[in-house]
Amino acid sequence: MTINRHSLGSTPRFRFSIAVGVSIAVTALLTGCSDPSAGYLYNETDHDYRKRHAVTVESTVARNWITFAKAQGHLSAADNDKLQRYFSDFIVAGHGHITARLATRGLTLAVRNNRLAALREVARNQGIKAEELEVFLTPVIKTPKGSADIELGYIRYIAGLPNCPDWSKNVDNNRANSDHSNFGCATQSNLGAMLVDPADLIKPRKSRAADGATVDTRIRTVGVPRGHPKKGVGTVGAGSPVVPAASGTGSAPAPEGTTTGQSSTETTE
What we know:
This protein is α+β, with helices and mostly antiparallel strands. Among the domains are: 44-54 and 161-197, no CATH class; 59-159, CATH 3.30.1330.60. 32% of the residues lie in helices and 16% in strands. It has seven helices and six strands. The strands form two sheets. Strands 1-6-2-3 form a four-stranded mixed β-sheet. A two-stranded antiparallel sheet has the order 4-5. The longest helix has 22 residues, at 12-33. It is elongated, with a radius of gyration of 36 Å. It starts with 11 loop residues before the first helix and ends in a 47-residue tail after the last helix.
């Protein structure tokens, strides 16, 4: 009788059992090293609506163009009003200085000087300082709608609002107990829409020492309001203290950075 002897290591079934065992061991090792709470880790964006619905801020150039009547050096009433609003917007939300380009092709020296003087006069009347208006001469000025005689530009910032509403999140699956995708979206959108100068989101404004001097100059120029008692004037009775007369109405200057009743336009025609 012949007996066939086989090595246990060469048995296919045994080799398969070894492979399965090794696979199970590796899987157990990897499972032990992984974090079972990985699906519940804190995600700041999911819990902070200010990051999830961020208001973006970017710089742009607010431009304006002026066209004079042929060979004329004075501004029309409409252009005068447009410049006043443009310079007022710069004071509220402008940064740096205003760059002005004046077209000179075909103009006499007198007309060119008159146009420059008209521009500077409106700027001065609106409170623009001389160093805040920089003028350059150029032969021709091209605009999206044709040619112009004066082009103005300054840096300002605009706010990018989040896309509201945001219903992208599945409310039935919230294992991380995070806020809903639409939570805080309207708050952020309203904040960005109310900003007069979105640059305030980048950094706060510095207090300007000149504000107090400006108010003091205005008071000295206009004078004391009607009905306001002069210092030391009052009614004196026997045994009675000095009682000033009734004061006239007035208002305190607005806090730093506060503006009321003003709007800004990115680009005006």
